[in-house]
Amino acid sequence: MGNAASYLLVFFGGGLGATLRQLINVTCARCIGTAFPYGTFIINITGSTVMGLIAGYLAFKGDASQPWRLFLMTGILGGYTTFSAFSLDTALLYERGELGLAVLYVAGSVALSIAGLFAGLAIIRHLT
């Protein structure tokens, strides 16, 4: 597969991931409110869980082609999850004087994202 095709797979996957991210952020803001960055919180956890599932599958089964890896992991998940938004949300909470929420957000995001990744790996280990 050529470089151009690889970049196109990442491009289209990234677009899908970013669109899903926007959908979740907007939906959370409308349904739950904006006092806490619920959208990014949910995105970080679900993205890490899916990354664990995919990484676990590839590690134990190993039968996904490079184009699928690029499309799913680099493209879709790369567009879906970013910690730049996480950092910005933390800073905004801090700037608003919500230190307790900022600490909860950081600790919860990190702990639950890592737990999600381990859960994904464990699920794949159990299924294979």
Automatic annotation (TrEMBL):
Broad class of the protein's primary localization: membrane
Described purpose of this protein according to its UniProt entry: Fluoride-specific ion channel. Important for reducing fluoride concentration in the cell, thus reducing its toxicity.
Catalytic activity, as annotated: fluoride(in) = fluoride(out)
GO BP terms: cellular detoxification of fluoride
UniProt cross-references to HAMAP family, sorted A to Z: FluC
Protein name, entry field: Fluoride-specific ion channel FluC
Topology term for the membrane: Multi-pass membrane protein
Transmembrane segments: 41-60, 72-94, 100-124
GO molecular function: fluoride channel activity; metal ion binding
UniProt KW keywords: Cell inner membrane, Cell membrane, Ion channel, Ion transport, Membrane, Metal-binding, Sodium, Transmembrane, Transmembrane helix, Transport
Family, similarity comment: Belongs to the fluoride channel Fluc/FEX (TC 1.A.43) family.
Activity regulation description: Na(+) is not transported, but it plays an essential structural role and its presence is essential for fluoride channel function.
Upper lineage: Bacteria, Pseudomonadati, Pseudomonadota, Alphaproteobacteria, Hyphomicrobiales
Binding-site list for Na(+): G78, T81
